[in-house]
Amino acid sequence: MARWILMAALVSGAAVAQVAPMTAADAAAHARGDSSAPVATAPSSGALPSPARVQGAQDQCPASDADCARKLREPAPSAPAQSTEWTKQGPSESAAAGLFGSELVGLGSPALNAPGGMAGAAAVPSRPIELSSYFILNGQWVQQDPNYLYVGRNNGFSLADARIEVTGRPSENLWLFLSMDGAVANRSASDPSQGTRVVALKDAYGVYSPGYHLRIQAGQFKAPQDVEHLLEETEIKFPSRSLVTDGLHSPAGYETNSLSLDRQIGIAIGTDVITLPFGSIAAQVAVTNGNGANTLFNGTSIPGVVGRLAIGLFGFVSLGGDAYFMPQATGTQPDLFRDNWVGAGGDIRIEWSGLHVMALMQWRNTQHLTSGAPDEVSFGYSAEAAYRLPGFAHFLEPAVRYASLNPSDKIPTGQIQSLDAALNLYAPGLGSGRLSIAYVHRMEDTSRTLQNDGLDLSMQVRF
Considering the chain, what is the average pLDDT of its residues? Predict the structure, then answer.
């Protein structure tokens, strides 16, 4: 409803702005009953006569020759109207076709198919306003472990994402990006299998492009680190991301944190895509608080630093590397514990003729400053492949993935692994509409094995 109200307001304003003024000569001609004089209507081409043409009509024609004045006042021929990408049907469709099209409003998101995953390096939005949205419904059925009550006892559906994204470009070298989600998980602190879905801010940042391939990004945005997290949810080939990026949570297994830095608040300096003889390159370095998204203040007085470099080769291969230093604080004063994260990672992606291959690794060293405990090392990696079948079976895409995550070298039994076999079914006529079904075989150390294999699914649509 809000979209139609906005459309009606904008269309009304556009219609008022495009009404051609009636000159004094026209009014006199109409008063005399001259039907050949023009009336005050919006030009069908959408172009307005310029003040110079109106003044020229008054200066070059005799006052008695209304036909001459009319022809000189007519707008100059314009280029054929471009086709619109706004395809929603509605009562104002004909009036809004030029408005919600190639000139003012369209569909798109700088976060989608971003170079090396970095939205700050994406191309300048082609329209002053771009809208995007996606919806994902998940389902999960996990075996019930007889001993661990948090596993397999909450099978069913869950709303994974209800995202709205808006991009505004007030000038040619500045654009703003805002995204909200109505299905953010808010887990109970006492029972991770309980909680609610809440509306929360995801992204809120601006990108300034002063030229010379320079980009400045500021606000709340994804840290330029783990490529799998940098991808949009609708770009991954499975119902969920791997253990390295998402970790593992109830009701699927033991609570295990990921190695992703998620979103951060800060400022970043980087580049757009720079073309090179062998391909392309993009980079970004960000200075952030280090304590995640939607936080009131920084958790410490020391900023974090994270950087990423992505290289494109041959038009279908992408190599990426990242490194970071992130100060951390847990607890509350006076019982505040300080740690430092130092980490690095690398990744490779291949997208070629229906084939998708991606491999990544993340390494982290945690320094315990307050407790003085020995440093902990965390390590994770994943490898996946998918192939979208050609011809009449183009709607089918089988995929397979293996992932391993060791959250701490000080916990010898902490490693978890997963093997996913998935099938993606793309809905004809729905563009990004997709049903994903995956069988997940989860593995733990032999000393604490769970019965937690399961079936995951996701249904998504995006515009």
Answer: 83
